């Protein structure tokens, strides 16, 4: 059949134009990554934040409870696709203009891309990283289209392939350059005095000594600390520009700079965090040694008031969380982790630690403490989740080993917030009988010898413990574990899903 109207031919001619436009969009993202790295200056970051903000609560909760980490990855992938489409549309318009005047097409693409990137990131210099590459793609593609050797090629094949090769090379270069500009995971030392550094070293050494050394079981100071955030791209905050303000119902608003914070006498504290959205036997529970100052020391300087006795903590990534002001009296403002400065993904320059509460309360990249006059809802409460603690007692079973003598060995961690762990019990006969596991020695509250009886515990309160249990068993046996907190209360037996108040139940596993 003959297409006398030439409709098919015209449609086919649109294929290379659309492909070049898509490549222009991809080049914008590559250039942006090269100039900003995986930070807030990367144009994908605000797009992903917007998608997260407008996503229905039901979809967010589905992503957390069903998809897990994959949900956030899919949202980031969607942000990439949107970015390619947005900047690709500018390339499409620029390509149309360049058919008449190549220079005008490039300038048109450059201006539209720069204005959009600037609007998204608020960084005029970094915006050129997303603007120059698509303009270059428009010029390069038009050059290939007009070059004599390209004439006769079916449907602009050389135009597309040549442009794709150029964008591919740019992407590789951008990845290497952007990875360097993103910054290191840990941002260096924190300028502790000799005695403060020695105390941190001693505490870390004690944690190493008191770890049970079970194969396959993470030590008492976690090798890798989990991270959960509302955005995939973490803020990249400059400590020289960072401040923490205490606002709201206060007698006098105060502002603390990073230099002021780190010049205070530092203290160290072991503290465990557990994610409210993890599975019952998941691995989003970790422990670290944190360095900082008591949070209340800063808040009380403002002489807080208000009628609701509550505060809202806000972060530079737009996150916010509300809880009782009394919880801040034992809170900690941390700027160090395991003897070094806070890693970027854990809240550099500073984060809050609120003992006994779910991990989401421990706001990272903290910038404001607002004393409220009436109760408000935090970020996750608005989406139906429980915010403030107390955390639910849990004993997790993560390590299963075959011992040389033929017996089985099971081990894990147990955590009950500030209540502490009194015991972990193990059943290997279908919960007919229970036996106590061996617990790791509690981590100390301070370095040096335990203090004399002063009415205070010599151990860290908000800290997990390891447990281990050896038994005569066979492959296929089911082991159930449960913990008893420091108040003598047993871990809840009833199984409950993580939404909305965190998972509960006894942990069982076939070994």
Automatic annotation (TrEMBL):
<dbReference type="Pfam" id="PF03404">
    <property type="entry name" value="Mo-co_dimer"/>
</dbReference>
<feature type="transmembrane region" description="Helical">
    <location>
        <begin position="20"/>
        <end position="43"/>
    </location>
</feature>
<feature type="region of interest" description="Disordered">
    <location>
        <begin position="428"/>
        <end position="461"/>
    </location>
</feature>
<feature type="domain" description="Moybdenum cofactor oxidoreductase dimerisation">
    <location>
        <begin position="406"/>
        <end position="494"/>
    </location>
</feature>
<dbReference type="GO" id="GO:0030151">
    <property type="term" value="F:molybdenum ion binding"/>
</dbReference>
<protein>
    <submittedName>
        <fullName>Molybdopterin-dependent oxidoreductase</fullName>
    </submittedName>
</protein>
<dbReference type="GO" id="GO:0006790">
    <property type="term" value="P:sulfur compound metabolic process"/>
</dbReference>
<dbReference type="GO" id="GO:0043546">
    <property type="term" value="F:molybdopterin cofactor binding"/>
</dbReference>
<dbReference type="Pfam" id="PF00174">
    <property type="entry name" value="Oxidored_molyb"/>
</dbReference>
<dbReference type="InterPro" id="IPR000572">
    <property type="entry name" value="OxRdtase_Mopterin-bd_dom"/>
</dbReference>
<dbReference type="InterPro" id="IPR036374">
    <property type="entry name" value="OxRdtase_Mopterin-bd_sf"/>
</dbReference>
<feature type="transmembrane region" description="Helical">
    <location>
        <begin position="74"/>
        <end position="96"/>
    </location>
</feature>
<dbReference type="InterPro" id="IPR014756">
    <property type="entry name" value="Ig_E-set"/>
</dbReference>
<keyword id="KW-0472">Membrane</keyword>
<dbReference type="GO" id="GO:0020037">
    <property type="term" value="F:heme binding"/>
</dbReference>
<feature type="region of interest" description="Disordered">
    <location>
        <begin position="476"/>
        <end position="511"/>
    </location>
</feature>
<dbReference type="GO" id="GO:0008482">
    <property type="term" value="F:sulfite oxidase activity"/>
</dbReference>
<feature type="domain" description="Oxidoreductase molybdopterin-binding">
    <location>
        <begin position="235"/>
        <end position="380"/>
    </location>
</feature>
<keyword id="KW-1133">Transmembrane helix</keyword>
<keyword id="KW-0812">Transmembrane</keyword>
<dbReference type="InterPro" id="IPR005066">
    <property type="entry name" value="MoCF_OxRdtse_dimer"/>
</dbReference>
């Amino acid at each position: 059949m003959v297409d006398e109207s030439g409709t098919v031919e015209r449609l086919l001619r649109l294929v290379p134009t659309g492909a070049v436009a898509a490549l222009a969009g991809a080049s914008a993202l590559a250039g942006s990554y090269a100039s900003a790295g995986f930070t807030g200056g990367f144009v994908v970051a605000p797009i992903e934040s917007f998608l997260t903000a407008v996503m229905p609560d039901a979809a967010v909760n589905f992503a957390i409870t069903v998809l897990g980490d994959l949900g956030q990855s899919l949202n980031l992938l969607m942000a990439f696709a949107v970015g390619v489409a947005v900047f690709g549309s500018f390339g499409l318009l620029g390509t149309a203009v360049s058919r008449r005047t190549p220079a005008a097409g490039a300038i048109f693409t450059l201006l539209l891309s720069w204005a959009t990137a600037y609007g998204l990131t608020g960084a005029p210099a970094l915006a050129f990283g997303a603007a120059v590459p698509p303009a270059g793609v428009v010029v390069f593609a038009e050059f290939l289209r007009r070059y004599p050797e390209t004439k006769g090629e079916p449907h602009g094949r050389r135009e597309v392939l040549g442009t794709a090769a150029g964008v591919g090379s740019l992407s590789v270069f951008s990845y290497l350059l952007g990875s360097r500009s993103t910054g290191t995971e840990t941002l260096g030392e924190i300028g502790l005095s000799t005695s403060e550094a020695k105390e941190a070293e001693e505490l870390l050494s004690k944690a190493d000594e008191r770890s049970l050394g079970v194969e396959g079981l993470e030590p008492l100071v976690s090798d890798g600390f989990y991270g959960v955030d509302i955005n995939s791209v973490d803020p990249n905050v400059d400590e020289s520009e960072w401040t923490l303000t205490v606002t709201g119902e206060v007698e006098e608003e105060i502002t603390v700079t990073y230099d002021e914070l780190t010049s205070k006498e530092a203290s160290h504290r072991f503290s465990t965090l557990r994610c409210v959205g993890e599975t019952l036997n998941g691995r989003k529970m970790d422990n670290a040694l944190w360095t900082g100052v008591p949070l209340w020391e800063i808040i009380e300087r403002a002489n807080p008031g208000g009628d609701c006795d509550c505060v809202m903590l806000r972060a530079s990534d737009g996150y916010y969380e509300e809880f009782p002001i009394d919880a801040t009296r034992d809170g900690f403002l941390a700027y160090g982790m395991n003897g070094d400065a806070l890693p970027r993904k854990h809240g550099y320059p500073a984060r809050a630690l609120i003992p006994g509460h779910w991990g989401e309360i421990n706001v990272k990249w903290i910038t404001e403490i607002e004393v409220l006059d009436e109760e408000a809802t935090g970020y996750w409460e608005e989406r139906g989740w429980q915010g403030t603690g107390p955390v639910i007692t849990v004993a997790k079973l993560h390590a299963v080993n075959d011992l040389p003598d033929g017996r089985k060995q099971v081990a894990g961690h147990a955590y009950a917030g500030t209540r502490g762990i009194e015991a972990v019990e193990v059943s290997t006969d279908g919960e007919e009988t229970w036996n106590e596991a061996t617990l790791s020695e509690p981590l100390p509250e301070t370095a040096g010898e335990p203090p004399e009886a002063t009415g205070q515990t010599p151990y860290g309160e908000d800290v997990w413990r390891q447990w281990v249990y050896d038994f005569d068993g066979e492959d296929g046996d089911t082991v159930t574990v449960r913990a008893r907190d420091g108040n003598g209360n047993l871990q809840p037996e009833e199984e409950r899903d993580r939404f909305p108040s965190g998972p509960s139940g006894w942990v069982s596993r076939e070994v």
